[in-house]
Amino acid sequence: MLLEKTIEERTIEINNNAKKLEQSNKELDKLSLAVNESANAITVYDIDGTIEFRNKAFTHLYGEILNEVVLMCGENLSLLDPSFEVHKHFRSCVESKQPIIYTQKKSIENADYWIQTTLTPVISNGIVNRMVAIDTDITKIKLAEEKIKIQNEKLEIEKQRAKDRNKKLFNISMLAHKEKEKVLMMSKVVEEKNKHISDSINYALKIQEALIPNVKVVKSYFNDSFVLFKPRDVVSGDFYWIAKVEKQLVITVADCTGHGVPGAFMSMLGMSILKEIVINEYITMPSLILKRLRKEIINVLHQTGTVGEQVDGMDMVLCSINYDDLTLQYAGANNPLYIFPNETNLSGLVEIKPDKMPIAIHQVMSSFTNHETKINKGDAIYLFSDGYLDQFGGDKDKKITSKRFKILLSEIQTLAMEEQKTALEKFLFSWKEDNEQTDDITVLGIKL
């Protein structure tokens, strides 16, 4: 009976110990999970500084490079980190048997980090037999502290500067008051002058608008047509002009030297001379019109061809259309003429090239070439200045160029002229984006 009782008691004791062991294992599992999932690097050293354990975060914090060091040097603290400071803290913690917190700046894989380490001794029977090191990455905190320090230093500097400025302002307050009155007076004068200039420019705009034909006039001759006219400034150095003389319809687009007010004066001069040549003198041959226009511009502006002389003038595309026999004559000063034949006839772009000389005094002063070609109903004709082609933008901030302009015109040939204008404006807006408009822009399209 005594033996049975002893066995029963031992069995109960074993079961109880097993339950306690099971409970301890569960607690250890939880502790192991917490240690391994911790964002902090946790390392256990023996009393000699040899690593007995390190968690996953250790590698994440110090990088794969530490594993290479371990393979070469082993896992002793003296080999992994020969820093005297670390050993001093380690020895101090062993001797004091108290936790120690210290911070180190480390360079890992060419990057600087600040690590705060908490060394905690593990004591058994009054003797330190292990050391637990918990490393926390405090780089963000350190950077923030440095930023705050720099900001505080700047703030102190600004405070001192503010004090200095206040002293100076106090000493010159009366003088500043007088200067303010002078500035106000000058500002008023400038404002009045600006208003006078603005009024003059607006008046010049009214004169220019009166000389440049209304879009309705163009549509009265060509129902299917468009005028894309975008001055860079209030007034334009570009202009378009149209006039009918008996059976001939003369139409032109010109690009004068400069833009804004100087260009506008040139454009008004050009339109005035054109009116005299075409309407009053009944001259409709494009080459002769350009020759006469060049002569008048040179005379009016007193151009002599002297070296260093300011040479003002214009580039121009001018054509004369005879509706009876559907003949087109063209002459150009630097600006070409584009024709897209009707699909029932030829297909593809026809470019008539200009003479490489302007309407002004020039080193080349030969006669302008008079081109003549047959046209057909449905042909599309384009006259333009170089403003559209020279607009900067796109991914590489380059010009649109004549090549891209030709492709664009080819792609929109199936559209009505007003729709073509919308497509050209849409492309220009997309290309230009935030860039300023480079030059005055004029594109005139007509379909016979």
Structure description:
The chain is an alpha+beta fold and 448 residues long. The chain folds into five domains: 1-32; 38-137, PAS domain (Beta-Lactamase), CATH 3.30.450.20; 144-171; 172-211; 213-447, PPM-type phosphatase domain (Phosphatase 2c, domain 1, 4-Layer Sandwich), CATH 3.60.40. It has helices spanning 2-37, 56-62, 65-73, 77-80, 84-96, 139-171, 173-211, 215-221, 260-280, 286-300, 401-411, 417-432; strands spanning 41-46, 51-54, 100-108, 111-124, 127-137, 225-230, 238-245, 248-256, 314-322, 327-333, 337-340, 350-352, 371-374, 380-384, 392-393, 398-399, 441-447. It has a five-stranded antiparallel β-sheet, sandwiched between helices. Strand 15 (392-393) and strand 16 (398-399) form a beta hairpin. Helix 7 (173-211) runs parallel beside helix 9 and helix 9 packs across helix 10. The chain is elongated and about 145 Å long. The model is unreliable at 24-31 (pLDDT under 50).
Concise description?
The protein has about 450 residues and is an alpha+beta fold. The chain has helices at about 1-35, 55-60, 65-75, 75-80, 85-95, 140-170, 175-210, 215-220, 260-280, 285-300, 400-410, 415-430, and strands at about 40-45, 50-55, 100-110, 110-125, 125-135, 225-230, 240-245, 250-255, 315-320, 325-335, 335-340, 350, 370-375, 380-385, 390-395, 400, 440-445. A hairpin with a 2-residue loop joins strand 4 (about 110-125) and strand 5.
